[in-house]
């Protein structure tokens, strides 16, 4: 596992990994808190069970990313990633100073192995955070 991760872990995937983690974790936390708010109070431990559920879900997603990174051919639904349409970047041609403000590399621009490593790391971070939260919420 370490070798595959070391091969695909470059400085380029740090930013997409952080973005992916900072979008997946709050969405899962929001779903848990909304379920706790809207479901009847007779259901006890909604927050604990919800955080544990999302922790296990993130672990399963990390496992699928690891299988993709390892080269296993999975069914099409497991091989798909969420691809939002990318807006075309309008750039002007000019001096060298114009290229300093270029956008950093996005998730869509990464290679397949780097995408899988990015998903794996982000899912592991989210899973660890959700499991820790589920252990400490009473």
Describe this structure in words.
This protein is mainly alpha-helical and 138 residues long. The chain is 62% helix and 0% strand. The protein has 5 helices and no strands. The protein is globular.
Please give the structural blueprint:
Elements: H1 2-8, H2 14-38, H3 46-70, H4 76-79, H5 112-136
Helix pairs in contact: 2-3, 2-5, 3-5
Order of helices and strands: HHHHH
List low-confidence stretches.
none
β-strand amount: under 5%
Largest sheet: none
Write a compact overview of the structure shown:
The protein has 138 residues and is mainly α. Helix content is 62%, strand content 0%. It is built from 5 helices and no strands.
Features:
globular, mainly alpha, 138 residues
């Amino acid at each position: 596992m370490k070798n595959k991760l070391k091969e695909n872990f470059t400085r380029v995937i740090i930013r997409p990994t952080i973005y992916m983690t900072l979008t997946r974790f709050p969405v899962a936390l929001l779903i848990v808190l909304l379920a706790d708010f809207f479901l009847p109070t007779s259901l006890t431990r909604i927050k604990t069970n919800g955080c544990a559920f999302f922790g296990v879900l993130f672990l399963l997603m990390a496992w699928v990313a690891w299988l993709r990174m390892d080269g296993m051919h999975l069914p099409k639904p497991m091989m798909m990633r969420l691809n939002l349409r990318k807006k075309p970047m309008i750039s002007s041609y000019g001096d060298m100073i114009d290229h300093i403000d270029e956008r950093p590399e996005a998730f869509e621009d990464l290679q397949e192995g780097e995408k899988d490593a990015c998903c794996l790391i982000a899912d592991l971070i989210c899973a660890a955070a959700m499991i820790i939260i589920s252990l400490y919420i009473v």
